């Protein structure tokens, strides 16, 4: 089919649903001193919500940007990617400043000590004191992304991975296997520490998420949506194999299995240390990749073709699915807000000395979920640009204008409409 005649592909409900679930898990993982982190997927396997975010972002990027390369050419596609990188970059800067400045204002106000007797330094807990104690290095490092505190490391990784899309698309024009070879080559270079980025100007610490390694997972999702990799068959053999992979991983990933103060499985702890290069998070070890693919396959089978099993199970479940999908559709604003909301929820919980109490723990998670849902719906409302739609008017009433066109063929009405229309913003 000619690229210019292709129709727009509908949104995949599975993509939005699982990306939404990932947003909730990421919030749980970022809420400080959160008991619920004991039950997120990362505790039972090598992969976690970061893999969900990166893989689904690759799929979404193929849908959002792939057709631009097809229809308008490589140059226009690269320009669109650059525009998206610009957006994500400033989202990262804005998110960082909101948290860094907000926490310092709260800390210096003395309010937490006066009202609740809290003496904890929340600025230091996120390693943000460099912004004030070493500003001449921290500010250039922030703007050049050579200073990336661990709490703020996902969006910088995403910016760099986005920058690789034009290179992958250029190679794929001539050879799709060549594009795979480029992606795998970058991943291998990262495994041998040949490609990395500095995370602090004053030390030799590297980015916690090496984008040259994590891009392989991103482009796996990208390749599935581009059709470079066919969908796997629904096979009982594959289902059993993937289930075995997930179960076999648990002793080496679940802390209660290998830690000394729990089950103390010495053999599991020793093997875990031996295979560390294969599950390490920074360089995206091979076992993380295999574990996620097994988990993703089972989720894909469970959702059914085109996500048909996600719906049709009652009104309550249907509403739940739609809400999660809405969160997934607005993943960038939800993710940006989640880090801020997580810190706010953690401080509010600490203000009532509820860090060790079950009710404040539950409320800090559930109310945080509600806040993320609210962010998703507000962001969706703004993206729909309701101010561009014709205003709703009553069918009858004194203020209704006559609908009879003017005698000269309607030019004055068209002119009036053009004059009142809001100009497009660039």
UniProtKB/TrEMBL annotation:
<protein>
    <submittedName>
        <fullName>OpgC protein</fullName>
    </submittedName>
</protein>
<feature type="compositionally biased region" description="Basic and acidic residues">
    <location>
        <begin position="414"/>
        <end position="426"/>
    </location>
</feature>
<feature type="transmembrane region" description="Helical">
    <location>
        <begin position="52"/>
        <end position="69"/>
    </location>
</feature>
<keyword id="KW-1133">Transmembrane helix</keyword>
<feature type="transmembrane region" description="Helical">
    <location>
        <begin position="358"/>
        <end position="379"/>
    </location>
</feature>
<dbReference type="InterPro" id="IPR014550">
    <property type="entry name" value="UCP028704_OpgC"/>
</dbReference>
<dbReference type="Pfam" id="PF10129">
    <property type="entry name" value="OpgC_C"/>
</dbReference>
<feature type="transmembrane region" description="Helical">
    <location>
        <begin position="179"/>
        <end position="195"/>
    </location>
</feature>
<feature type="transmembrane region" description="Helical">
    <location>
        <begin position="89"/>
        <end position="106"/>
    </location>
</feature>
<feature type="transmembrane region" description="Helical">
    <location>
        <begin position="207"/>
        <end position="225"/>
    </location>
</feature>
<keyword id="KW-0812">Transmembrane</keyword>
<feature type="transmembrane region" description="Helical">
    <location>
        <begin position="286"/>
        <end position="303"/>
    </location>
</feature>
<feature type="transmembrane region" description="Helical">
    <location>
        <begin position="21"/>
        <end position="40"/>
    </location>
</feature>
<feature type="transmembrane region" description="Helical">
    <location>
        <begin position="237"/>
        <end position="255"/>
    </location>
</feature>
<feature type="transmembrane region" description="Helical">
    <location>
        <begin position="332"/>
        <end position="352"/>
    </location>
</feature>
<keyword id="KW-0472">Membrane</keyword>
<feature type="transmembrane region" description="Helical">
    <location>
        <begin position="154"/>
        <end position="172"/>
    </location>
</feature>
<feature type="region of interest" description="Disordered">
    <location>
        <begin position="385"/>
        <end position="426"/>
    </location>
</feature>
């Amino acid at each position: 089919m000619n690229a210019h005649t292709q129709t727009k592909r509908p949104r995949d409900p599975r993509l939005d649903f699982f990306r939404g679930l990932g947003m909730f898990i990421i919030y749980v993982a970022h809420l400080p001193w959160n008991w619920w982190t004991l039950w997120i997927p990362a505790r039972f396997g090598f992969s976690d919500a970061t893999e969900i975010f990166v893989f689904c972002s690759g799929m979404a990027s193929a849908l959002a940007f792939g057709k631009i390369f097809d229809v308008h050419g490589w140059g226009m596609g690269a320009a669109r990617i650059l525009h998206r990188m610009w957006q994500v970059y400033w989202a990262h800067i804005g998110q960082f400043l909101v948290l860094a400045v907000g926490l310092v204002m709260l800390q210096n106000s003395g309010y937490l000590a006066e009202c609740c007797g809290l003496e904890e330094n929340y600025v230091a807990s996120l390693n943000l004191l460099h912004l004030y104690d070493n500003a001449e290095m921290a500010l250039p490092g922030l703007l050049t992304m050579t200073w990336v505190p661990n709490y703020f490391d996902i969006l910088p990784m995403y910016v760099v991975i986005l920058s690789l899309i034009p290179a992958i698309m250029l190679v794929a024009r001539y050879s799709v296997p060549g594009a795979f070879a480029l992606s795998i080559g970058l991943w291998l270079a990262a495994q041998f520490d040949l490609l990395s980025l500095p995370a602090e100007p004053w030390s030799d610490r590297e980015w916690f998420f090496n984008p040259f390694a994590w891009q392989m997972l991103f482009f796996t999702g990208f390749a599935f949506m581009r059709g470079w990799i066919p969908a796997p068959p629904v096979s009982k053999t594959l289902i059993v194999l993937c289930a075995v992979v997930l179960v076999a991983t648990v002793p080496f990933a679940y802390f209660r299995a290998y830690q000394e103060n729990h089950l103390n499985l010495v053999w599991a702890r020793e093997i875990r240390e031996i295979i560390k290069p294969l599950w390490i998070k920074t360089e995206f070890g091979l076992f993380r990749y295999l574990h996620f693919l097994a988990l993703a396959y089972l989720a894909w089978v469970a959702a059914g073709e085109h996500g048909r099993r996600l719906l049709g199970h009652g009104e309550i479940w249907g509403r739940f699915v739609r809400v999660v999908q809405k969160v997934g559709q607005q993943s960038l604003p939800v993710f940006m807000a989640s880090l801020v909301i997580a810190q706010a929820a953690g401080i509010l919980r600490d203000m009532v000395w509820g860090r060790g109490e079950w009710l404040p723990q539950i409320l800090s998670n559930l109310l945080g979920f509600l806040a993320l849902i609210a962010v998703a719906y507000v962001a969706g409302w703004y993206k729909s640009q309701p101010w561009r739609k014709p205003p709703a008017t009553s069918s009858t009433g004194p203020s209704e204008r006559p609908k009879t066109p003017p005698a000269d063929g309607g030019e004055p009405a068209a002119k009036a409409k053009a004059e009142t229309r809001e100009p497009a913003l660039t």
